[in-house]
# Entry
Amino acid sequence: MEEEITMGKILGKWSLWLGVTAFFALPLASWAQLTMQDLKAKLNTEAHVGNLTGHAKDGANAYRRYCVGCHGDLGDGNGENADWMEPPLYPKPRNFQLGIFKCRSTPSGTLPLDSDLFDSIGRGFDRSMMPPWNTLTKQEKVDLVAWVKHFSPRWANEKSGDPIKIGPEPEVTAERIKAGRDVFARVQCWKCHGVVGQANGPSASTLTDDLGRPIAPFNFTEGARPKCGSSDADIYRIFMTGLDGTPMPSYADNIKPDEGWDLVFYLRTLMSQNSKEKEMAKQLNLKPVDPNAPAGQQ
# Structure
């Protein structure tokens, strides 16, 4: 049997990596300032999901077994597998030390809820090397959440944001789908995602993430699952929270709640999966947005 990695061994290896990192680090981000003492002080970090409490020290072995190869001993996204991931086709692993996460139920710029990280571990991310870790128990996942949190000083100084409110989903109608097309045009989704959602808009090839690495917009037509969940509410949430660390902003100040649902329904017409919205669009003979059309005249 594989020998269990103890906390002492993990921390011992971290000591070596921290020394190397301190010598070569660039002053690009605050994570480069971590010391061994910093990490030890955070081993009592907790996570809370439902009635479960996770403890960072109890997540060490699962992290070593499942996560370290990509996210690295220091949680900085520099695991030994990371060199083989070339954006935008294969996004680099998340740098946990920055405390910036795409999939959240909280407003842009705020920390996610523990349940957001818990869901990300279980769901995984399509179009990336991050699989769904559904072999883990709920307790193992919540312990991993605590372990992930202990990498970043943000959780020592900030609280998670308050989750955004999502009202009841309205009934889809032809008028709502047409209104969603107008929203798609007005907020210029087509500039990145393309007029038919094929990720080939005029800005698509120029996009980079916050670390300057190439990043591709989501292709609605290829059948992949949206990054942060596939339900209508999941897609609506992305509009309102944005995907921090990427060019995808929050539209909470630009679109009204009803317009958000309209946009969800329109995006369903672009997806390859069969849906009520797609059938309605065919009956309407709905045309793609025209970037040159006057405002409100799609």
Summary: Residues 1-31 have pLDDT under 50 and may be disordered. The CA atoms of residues 187 and 254 lie 8 Å apart.
